[in-house]
From TrEMBL:
Residues 157-159 are annotated as: G5. It comes from Iodidimonas gelatinilytica. GO terms for cellular component: cytosol; plasma membrane. This is GTPase Era. The gene is era. The keyword rRNA-binding applies. It is a peripheral membrane protein. One of its GO terms (molecular function) is GTP binding. GTP binds at residues 19-26, 66-70, 128-131. InterPro entries: G_ERA_dom, GTP-bd, GTPase_Era-like, KH_dom-like_a/b, KH_dom_type_2, KH_sf_prok-type, P-loop_NTPase, Small_GTP-bd. Pfam families: KH_2, MMR_HSR1. HAMAP family: GTPase_Era.
Length: 304
């Protein structure tokens, strides 16, 4: 942990991470913060809310906002996620537009470019996953991005390996407004531990069932209490939208749910540094994606 020099001028600001689904925003957020706070999955649209990650670079405090992927919305939840992403970009001091270098500029990226152009917003473009792209193709992509006119700077990175991430972080830190720090220097996120625990369980579900399970699922932490021995008892409800999905999550003889719970518990214990007793329950809540309370819990606005 870096310590702020007493009496030195400090800077602080918000940096939004935007991009199409699966561009690697959550992986980049974890790399920038230096600790896992955002769930990562091969399944697109994994991030549903705006997660905040806090990092220190010299005298600068960087407050990163990992937004949901921007895509063509079809459902209420989709619209709320896209609205949250654009709000994050509008409110930020700086914006990092992440592009999967292996996929290039597709319809979703073009839509984002158009939105940025209409807003007159210059952004930092990070071409991600460069370790999987040949140099000539990478240079061609960089030229295409530059031609759009939305890029103030272009960085080539691999969020997964960390290649290029320190240079990006240093550049962002140098361009933050002069300001006192907004958070204690040892704080890495502003979301509650209850929400983070629910996100951990949701990640394990996606990782295990990403080919079988649709998006109609969410996790809610219903009970959280400390035990006398210093451990924590956590009760979580996995909401599924159909009865058939319940059987998929539970698995034959309850084996799938047990494996999900074991993996989630281990991650929670690592995160909190104490023993966790995790109890998972699967509940069919057919219209959970229409429930305003669930949107509030995810930090999203209920979009008509």
């Amino acid at each position: 942990m870096q310590n702020v020099t007493q009496g030195a001028e400090t800077s602080c600001g918000f940096i939004a991470l935007i991009g199409a689904p699966n561009a690697g925003k959550s992986t980049l957020l974890n790399a920038l913060v230096g600790q896992k706070i955002a769930i990562v999955s091969h399944k697109v649209q994994t991030t549903r809310t705006r997660l905040t990650g806090i990092a220190i670079e010299g005298q600068s405090q960087l407050v990163f906002v990992d937004t949901p992927g921007i895509f063509a919305p079809k459902r209420r939840l989709d619209r709320a996620m896209v609205a949250a992403a654009w709000e994050g970009a509008q409110d930020a001091d700086q914006v990092v537009f992440l592009i999967d270098a292996a996929k290039g500029i597709r319809a979703d990226e073009q839509k984002i470019i158009e939105g940025l152009s209409e807003a007159g917003r210059k952004v930092i473009v990070a071409l991600n996953k460069v370790d999987s792209v040949k140099r000539d193709r990478l240079l061609a992509l960089a030229q295409a991005v530059d031609a759009t006119g939305v890029a103030a700077e272009i960085f080539m990175i691999s969020a997964l390996t960390g290649d290029g991430v320190p240079d990006l972080k240093t550049h962002l830190a140098k361009n933050l407004p002069k300001s006192p720090w907004l958070y204690p220097e040892d704080q890495i996120t502003d979301i509650t531990t209850r929400v983070l625990a629910a996100e951990i369980t949701r990640e394990k579900i996606f990782l295990r069932l990403h080919q079988e399970l649709p998006y109609g699922i969410t996790v809610e932490t219903e009970k959280w209490e400390g035990r006398k021995d210093g451990s924590i008892e956590i009760h979580q409800v996995i909401h599924v939208s159909r009865d058939g999905h319940k059987g998929i999550v539970i698995g034959k003889g309850g084996h799938t749910l047990k494996a999900i719970g074991e993996q989630a518990r281990l991650d929670m214990e690592t995160m909190m540094g104490q023993r966790v007793h995790l109890f998972l329950f699967v509940r069919v809540t057919e219209r959970w994606a229409e429930d305003r309370e669930h949107y509030l819990a995810m930090g999203l606005n209920y979009v008509d």
